[in-house]
Design a protein that fits this description.
Blueprint (H helix, E strand, L loop, with lengths): L3 E2 L2 H21 L5 E7 L3 H16 L3 E7 L5 H13 L5 E4 L9 H7 L11 H8 L8 H12 L8 E5 L6 H10 L3 E5 L6 H5 L4 E4 L17 E4 L3 E2 L5 E2 L4 H4 L5 E2 L6 H17 L7
Parallel strand pairs: 1-11, 2-3, 2-4, 5-6, 5-7, 7-8, 8-11
Antiparallel strand pairs: 9-10
Bound molecules: NADPH dihydro-nicotinamide-adenine-dinucleotide phosphate (NDP).
Amino acid sequence: MSVNILNGKQLAQRLRMEMKDEVDQLVQDGIKPKLTVVLVGNNPASLSYVKGKEKAAKEAGILADVIRLPDSTSEKELLRLIQQLNEDDTVHGILVQLPLPEHIREQLVITAISPNKDVDGFHPVNIGKMMTGEDTFLPCTPYGIMTMLDAYDIEIEGKHAVVIGRSNIVGKPVGQLLLNRNATVTYCHSRTKNLKQYTEQADILIAAIGKANVITKDYIKKGAVVIDVGINRLEDGSLTGDVDMEGAMEKASHITPVPGGVGPMTIAMLLKNTIDAAKGLNRVE
Ligand code: NDP
Protein backbone atom coordinates (compact mmCIF):
# COMPACT_ATOMS: atom_id res chain seq x y z
CA MET A 1 0.00 0.00 0.00
CA SER A 2 1.47 3.36 -0.97
CA VAL A 3 1.11 6.33 1.32
CA ASN A 4 -0.58 9.58 0.25
CA ILE A 5 1.16 12.76 1.32
CA LEU A 6 -1.31 15.44 2.40
CA ASN A 7 0.34 18.44 0.81
CA GLY A 8 -0.78 21.38 2.95
CA LYS A 9 1.56 23.76 1.22
CA GLN A 10 0.05 23.14 -2.20
CA LEU A 11 -3.52 23.14 -0.93
CA ALA A 12 -2.99 26.36 1.05
CA GLN A 13 -1.50 28.02 -2.04
CA ARG A 14 -4.57 27.10 -4.06
CA LEU A 15 -6.92 28.35 -1.36
CA ARG A 16 -4.99 31.60 -1.06
CA MET A 17 -5.30 32.20 -4.80
CA GLU A 18 -9.06 31.63 -4.58
CA MET A 19 -9.20 34.01 -1.61
CA LYS A 20 -7.33 36.66 -3.57
CA ASP A 21 -10.12 36.61 -6.17
CA GLU A 22 -12.66 36.92 -3.37
CA VAL A 23 -10.79 39.86 -1.84
CA ASP A 24 -10.56 41.59 -5.24
CA GLN A 25 -14.32 41.28 -5.53
CA LEU A 26 -14.86 42.68 -2.03
CA VAL A 27 -12.59 45.63 -2.79
CA GLN A 28 -14.62 46.32 -5.94
CA ASP A 29 -17.69 46.34 -3.70
CA GLY A 30 -16.04 48.92 -1.44
CA ILE A 31 -14.89 46.60 1.38
CA LYS A 32 -11.15 46.44 2.07
CA PRO A 33 -10.49 43.45 4.36
CA LYS A 34 -8.03 44.39 7.06
CA LEU A 35 -6.19 42.33 9.66
CA THR A 36 -4.40 43.96 12.57
CA VAL A 37 -1.80 41.86 14.35
CA VAL A 38 -0.55 42.93 17.77
CA LEU A 39 2.87 41.68 18.78
CA VAL A 40 4.15 42.32 22.31
CA GLY A 41 7.86 41.74 22.93
CA ASN A 42 10.60 40.05 20.89
CA ASN A 43 9.95 36.32 21.08
CA PRO A 44 11.85 35.08 17.97
CA ALA A 45 9.28 32.38 17.08
CA SER A 46 6.45 34.93 17.41
CA LEU A 47 8.32 37.42 15.21
CA SER A 48 8.68 34.81 12.50
CA TYR A 49 5.01 33.69 12.77
CA VAL A 50 3.83 37.30 12.53
CA LYS A 51 6.01 37.92 9.48
CA GLY A 52 4.53 34.85 7.79
CA LYS A 53 0.97 35.98 8.53
CA GLU A 54 1.62 39.54 7.33
CA LYS A 55 3.18 38.32 4.07
CA ALA A 56 0.38 35.84 3.35
CA ALA A 57 -2.30 38.45 4.08
CA LYS A 58 -0.71 41.00 1.78
CA GLU A 59 -0.32 38.44 -1.02
CA ALA A 60 -4.05 37.73 -0.76
CA GLY A 61 -4.77 41.46 -1.08
CA ILE A 62 -5.73 41.82 2.60
CA LEU A 63 -4.50 44.96 4.35
CA ALA A 64 -2.21 43.81 7.14
CA ASP A 65 -1.11 46.09 9.91
CA VAL A 66 1.35 44.89 12.55
CA ILE A 67 1.46 46.86 15.80
CA ARG A 68 4.70 46.11 17.65
CA LEU A 69 4.74 46.89 21.35
CA PRO A 70 7.63 46.63 23.83
CA ASP A 71 7.85 43.86 26.42
CA SER A 72 7.16 46.48 29.09
CA THR A 73 3.64 47.21 27.77
CA SER A 74 1.15 47.02 30.63
CA GLU A 75 -2.00 44.89 30.55
CA LYS A 76 -4.06 48.07 30.77
CA GLU A 77 -2.33 49.63 27.74
CA LEU A 78 -2.87 46.48 25.70
CA LEU A 79 -6.55 46.31 26.69
CA ARG A 80 -6.97 49.96 25.73
CA LEU A 81 -5.46 49.29 22.30
CA ILE A 82 -7.79 46.32 21.77
CA GLN A 83 -10.75 48.50 22.67
CA GLN A 84 -9.66 51.05 20.03
CA LEU A 85 -9.30 48.30 17.42
CA ASN A 86 -12.73 46.88 18.37
CA GLU A 87 -14.23 50.31 17.68
CA ASP A 88 -12.31 50.91 14.43
CA ASP A 89 -14.66 50.01 11.56
CA THR A 90 -11.78 49.70 9.08
CA VAL A 91 -10.33 46.76 11.08
CA HIS A 92 -12.08 43.43 10.45
CA GLY A 93 -9.75 41.00 12.19
CA ILE A 94 -7.66 41.37 15.35
CA LEU A 95 -4.97 38.87 16.28
CA VAL A 96 -2.88 39.20 19.41
CA GLN A 97 0.14 36.95 18.93
CA LEU A 98 0.63 34.53 21.82
CA PRO A 99 2.42 33.94 24.11
CA LEU A 100 2.20 37.30 25.90
CA PRO A 101 4.73 38.45 28.52
CA GLU A 102 4.04 36.92 31.93
CA HIS A 103 2.65 40.10 33.51
CA ILE A 104 -0.26 40.14 31.03
CA ARG A 105 -3.19 37.78 31.57
CA GLU A 106 -3.71 36.02 28.26
CA GLN A 107 -7.30 34.97 28.84
CA LEU A 108 -8.30 38.53 29.76
CA VAL A 109 -6.81 39.82 26.51
CA ILE A 110 -8.45 37.11 24.38
CA THR A 111 -11.82 37.88 25.95
CA ALA A 112 -11.37 41.63 25.32
CA ILE A 113 -11.26 41.13 21.54
CA SER A 114 -14.69 41.54 19.96
CA PRO A 115 -16.03 38.06 19.03
CA ASN A 116 -16.86 39.62 15.64
CA LYS A 117 -13.17 40.34 14.99
CA ASP A 118 -11.76 37.23 16.68
CA VAL A 119 -10.08 35.71 13.61
CA ASP A 120 -7.99 33.37 15.79
CA GLY A 121 -11.23 31.79 17.06
CA PHE A 122 -10.09 31.83 20.69
CA HIS A 123 -12.85 33.99 22.24
CA PRO A 124 -15.02 32.00 24.69
CA VAL A 125 -18.16 33.03 22.79
CA ASN A 126 -16.79 31.62 19.56
CA ILE A 127 -15.50 28.49 21.29
CA GLY A 128 -19.00 27.99 22.72
CA LYS A 129 -20.53 28.39 19.27
CA MET A 130 -18.07 25.86 17.88
CA MET A 131 -19.10 23.39 20.59
CA THR A 132 -22.77 23.75 19.77
CA GLY A 133 -22.00 23.41 16.06
CA GLU A 134 -22.97 26.95 15.00
CA ASP A 135 -21.16 28.84 12.23
CA THR A 136 -18.33 30.79 13.80
CA PHE A 137 -14.67 31.73 13.51
CA LEU A 138 -12.91 28.42 14.06
CA PRO A 139 -9.42 28.25 15.57
CA CYS A 140 -7.08 28.30 12.58
CA THR A 141 -5.04 25.11 13.09
CA PRO A 142 -8.03 22.80 13.74
CA TYR A 143 -9.91 24.54 10.89
CA GLY A 144 -6.92 23.92 8.61
CA ILE A 145 -6.83 20.24 9.57
CA MET A 146 -10.55 19.79 8.83
CA THR A 147 -10.21 21.64 5.52
CA MET A 148 -7.33 19.39 4.54
CA LEU A 149 -9.22 16.18 5.47
CA ASP A 150 -12.15 17.35 3.35
CA ALA A 151 -9.98 18.43 0.41
CA TYR A 152 -8.50 14.92 0.30
CA ASP A 153 -11.95 13.29 0.66
CA ILE A 154 -11.05 11.56 3.91
CA GLU A 155 -14.09 10.09 5.57
CA ILE A 156 -14.65 11.28 9.14
CA GLU A 157 -18.08 9.99 10.11
CA GLY A 158 -17.93 6.81 12.16
CA LYS A 159 -14.12 6.82 12.30
CA HIS A 160 -12.17 6.59 15.53
CA ALA A 161 -10.11 9.77 15.85
CA VAL A 162 -7.44 9.84 18.53
CA VAL A 163 -6.12 13.28 19.42
CA ILE A 164 -2.85 13.47 21.36
CA GLY A 165 -2.77 16.88 23.06
CA ARG A 166 -5.46 18.92 24.80
CA SER A 167 -4.39 22.54 24.39
CA ASN A 168 -7.07 25.17 23.89
CA ILE A 169 -5.66 26.12 20.50
CA VAL A 170 -5.16 22.70 18.89
CA GLY A 171 -6.02 19.49 20.75
CA LYS A 172 -9.37 20.35 22.35
CA PRO A 173 -10.90 22.17 19.36
CA VAL A 174 -9.78 19.66 16.72
CA GLY A 175 -11.35 16.86 18.79
CA GLN A 176 -14.56 18.87 19.03
CA LEU A 177 -14.67 19.53 15.27
CA LEU A 178 -14.14 15.82 14.57
CA LEU A 179 -16.92 15.00 17.02
CA ASN A 180 -19.21 17.54 15.30
CA ARG A 181 -18.60 15.54 12.12
CA ASN A 182 -19.59 12.26 13.81
CA ALA A 183 -16.19 10.77 14.52
CA THR A 184 -15.72 8.87 17.77
CA VAL A 185 -13.07 10.88 19.57
CA THR A 186 -10.50 9.88 22.18
CA TYR A 187 -8.27 12.52 23.78
CA CYS A 188 -4.83 11.59 25.09
CA HIS A 189 -2.34 13.77 26.96
CA SER A 190 0.74 13.62 29.15
CA ARG A 191 -1.08 11.78 31.96
CA THR A 192 -2.55 9.13 29.64
CA LYS A 193 -1.38 5.70 30.71
CA ASN A 194 -0.21 3.41 27.92
CA LEU A 195 -0.73 5.86 25.07
CA LYS A 196 -0.12 3.16 22.49
CA GLN A 197 -3.25 1.19 23.42
CA TYR A 198 -5.30 4.17 22.18
CA THR A 199 -3.26 5.33 19.21
CA GLU A 200 -3.07 1.87 17.67
CA GLN A 201 -6.88 1.93 17.41
CA ALA A 202 -6.95 5.27 15.58
CA ASP A 203 -8.35 5.53 12.07
CA ILE A 204 -7.39 9.21 12.25
CA LEU A 205 -4.45 10.08 14.49
CA ILE A 206 -3.75 13.72 15.35
CA ALA A 207 -0.42 14.40 17.07
CA ALA A 208 -0.30 17.84 18.72
CA ILE A 209 2.32 17.25 21.36
CA GLY A 210 5.38 19.38 20.64
CA LYS A 211 8.00 16.60 21.04
CA ALA A 212 10.13 15.54 18.10
CA ASN A 213 9.46 12.14 16.54
CA VAL A 214 7.83 10.56 19.62
CA ILE A 215 5.10 8.86 17.59
CA THR A 216 6.86 5.97 15.93
CA LYS A 217 5.32 3.39 13.62
CA ASP A 218 4.47 1.11 16.56
CA TYR A 219 1.85 3.65 17.63
CA ILE A 220 0.09 3.66 14.27
CA LYS A 221 -2.64 1.36 12.97
CA LYS A 222 -2.16 0.11 9.41
CA GLY A 223 -4.02 2.35 7.00
CA ALA A 224 -4.44 5.24 9.48
CA VAL A 225 -4.61 8.89 8.47
CA VAL A 226 -1.83 10.63 10.40
CA ILE A 227 -1.93 14.38 10.98
CA ASP A 228 1.27 15.75 12.47
CA VAL A 229 0.70 19.17 14.03
CA GLY A 230 3.99 19.39 15.94
CA ILE A 231 6.66 21.87 14.98
CA ASN A 232 9.92 21.00 16.68
CA ARG A 233 13.29 22.55 15.98
CA LEU A 234 16.22 20.12 16.10
CA GLU A 235 19.74 21.06 17.17
CA ASP A 236 20.85 21.40 13.54
CA GLY A 237 18.12 24.04 13.04
CA SER A 238 15.84 21.83 10.93
CA LEU A 239 12.13 21.41 11.68
CA THR A 240 10.45 18.13 12.41
CA GLY A 241 7.05 16.96 13.58
CA ASP A 242 5.89 14.80 16.48
CA VAL A 243 5.69 11.77 14.18
CA ASP A 244 8.65 9.78 12.93
CA MET A 245 7.68 10.26 9.30
CA GLU A 246 9.91 7.61 7.79
CA GLY A 247 8.55 4.82 9.98
CA ALA A 248 4.98 6.12 9.86
CA MET A 249 5.00 6.00 6.06
CA GLU A 250 5.21 2.19 6.28
CA LYS A 251 1.86 2.06 8.10
CA ALA A 252 -0.21 5.17 7.27
CA SER A 253 -2.55 5.54 4.31
CA HIS A 254 -2.21 9.36 4.47
CA ILE A 255 0.26 11.57 6.30
CA THR A 256 1.10 15.27 6.60
CA PRO A 257 4.74 16.32 6.24
CA VAL A 258 6.47 18.82 8.56
CA PRO A 259 7.09 21.40 7.27
CA GLY A 260 4.54 21.79 4.49
CA GLY A 261 1.54 20.10 6.09
CA VAL A 262 -0.62 21.67 8.79
CA GLY A 263 1.44 24.90 9.14
CA PRO A 264 0.54 26.52 5.80
CA MET A 265 -3.11 25.52 6.29
CA THR A 266 -3.19 27.39 9.61
CA ILE A 267 -2.20 30.65 7.91
CA ALA A 268 -4.66 30.10 5.06
CA MET A 269 -7.51 29.72 7.58
CA LEU A 270 -6.51 32.96 9.30
CA LEU A 271 -6.99 34.72 5.95
CA LYS A 272 -10.32 32.93 5.45
CA ASN A 273 -11.54 34.08 8.87
CA THR A 274 -10.43 37.66 8.12
CA ILE A 275 -12.34 37.65 4.82
CA ASP A 276 -15.43 36.22 6.55
CA ALA A 277 -15.19 38.93 9.21
CA ALA A 278 -14.95 41.59 6.48
CA LYS A 279 -18.07 40.08 4.90
CA GLY A 280 -19.85 40.45 8.25
CA LEU A 281 -20.29 36.71 8.76
CA ASN A 282 -20.51 34.96 12.16
CA ARG A 283 -21.60 38.12 13.95
CA VAL A 284 -22.75 38.12 17.54
CA GLU A 285 -25.14 41.04 18.02
P1 NDP B 1 0.89 22.55 24.22
O1 NDP B 1 2.24 22.44 24.81
O2 NDP B 1 -0.05 23.58 24.71
O3 NDP B 1 0.15 21.13 24.36
C1 NDP B 1 0.83 19.93 24.18
C2 NDP B 1 -0.08 18.79 24.56
O4 NDP B 1 0.64 17.57 24.41
C3 NDP B 1 -0.55 18.84 26.02
O5 NDP B 1 -1.91 18.57 26.09
C4 NDP B 1 0.29 17.76 26.73
O6 NDP B 1 -0.40 17.12 27.78
C5 NDP B 1 0.49 16.78 25.59
N1 NDP B 1 1.70 15.97 25.77
C6 NDP B 1 2.93 16.41 26.06
N2 NDP B 1 3.79 15.37 26.15
C7 NDP B 1 3.06 14.25 25.91
C8 NDP B 1 3.37 12.88 25.84
N3 NDP B 1 4.62 12.44 26.03
N4 NDP B 1 2.38 12.01 25.56
C9 NDP B 1 1.12 12.46 25.34
N5 NDP B 1 0.77 13.75 25.38
C10 NDP B 1 1.73 14.64 25.66
O7 NDP B 1 1.13 22.68 22.66
P2 NDP B 1 0.16 23.19 21.47
O8 NDP B 1 -1.10 22.42 21.46
O9 NDP B 1 0.12 24.66 21.46
O10 NDP B 1 1.05 22.75 20.23
C11 NDP B 1 1.40 21.41 20.01
C12 NDP B 1 2.45 21.35 18.90
O11 NDP B 1 1.86 21.86 17.72
C13 NDP B 1 3.69 22.22 19.13
O12 NDP B 1 4.80 21.57 18.54
C14 NDP B 1 3.40 23.49 18.39
O13 NDP B 1 4.57 24.15 17.96
C15 NDP B 1 2.63 22.94 17.21
N6 NDP B 1 1.70 23.89 16.61
C16 NDP B 1 1.67 23.91 15.26
C17 NDP B 1 0.81 24.74 14.61
C18 NDP B 1 0.79 24.69 13.14
O14 NDP B 1 0.26 25.60 12.53
N7 NDP B 1 1.32 23.65 12.51
C19 NDP B 1 -0.06 25.67 15.32
C20 NDP B 1 -0.03 25.51 16.75
C21 NDP B 1 0.85 24.65 17.36
P3 NDP B 1 -0.85 17.91 29.14
O15 NDP B 1 -2.07 18.70 28.76
O16 NDP B 1 -1.14 16.82 30.10
O17 NDP B 1 0.31 18.78 29.52
